[in-house]
Design brief:
Layout: H1 2-68, H2 74-134, H3 136-139
């Protein structure tokens, strides 16, 4: 009778561990999906900003080149040069910020993949506990047979 109670207690412990692992897997999957979705949106926006900033920087550099072309009136060249430098500097600043946001978004996507992996591990733990709770070999400990001596009686006793 005490062995049967121990088996039931052990089975309940495995079922409880299975439930905890399933809940953890569910929570991690949700968090991973949410994180990945937000990171993808952030990456998309950062990529658009990066493209716009690169285009603006290129525009400034083209103005600087036009200012340097021979035959450009000196006053126009000075204006083009000043505008070009300002636009190019603004573009470079925007490019750096957009790249930083894009890198952050990509890091968040990596984190979401790690969350998905953790969810998979938690799911595997839950499955293991479920199998252990239902395993007939695990549940039934071998009973001492009539030919085997009791545990406290040995050959050297």
């Amino acid at each position: 009778m005490p062995g049967e109670a121990d088996e039931l207690i052990l089975k309940m412990q495995h079922l409880e561990a299975e439930a905890r692992a399933q809940e953890e897997a569910r929570r991690l999957e949700e968090r991973g999906r949410s994180l990945k979705s937000r990171a993808q949106q952030m990456a998309w926006a950062a990529q658009i900003e990066l493209d716009a900033a690169t285009s603006r920087q290129r525009e400034g550099e083209e103005k600087i080149e036009r200012a340097k072309t021979p035959g450009t009136p000196p006053l126009d060249a000075a204006d083009l040069l000043a505008q070009g430098k300002q636009i190019a500097a603004e573009g470079r600043t925007r490019v750096v910020k957009a790249r930083a946001r894009l890198n952050y978004a990509l890091d968040q996507m990596d984190e979401s993949e790690r969350q998905e992996l953790e969810a998979l591990r938690a799911s595997a733990r839950a499955e293991t506990h479920a199998q252990l709770a239902e395993d007939p070999l695990f549940a039934k400990a071998p009973a001492p047979g009539p030919a085997s001596p009791p545990e406290d009686e040995g050959e050297g006793a």
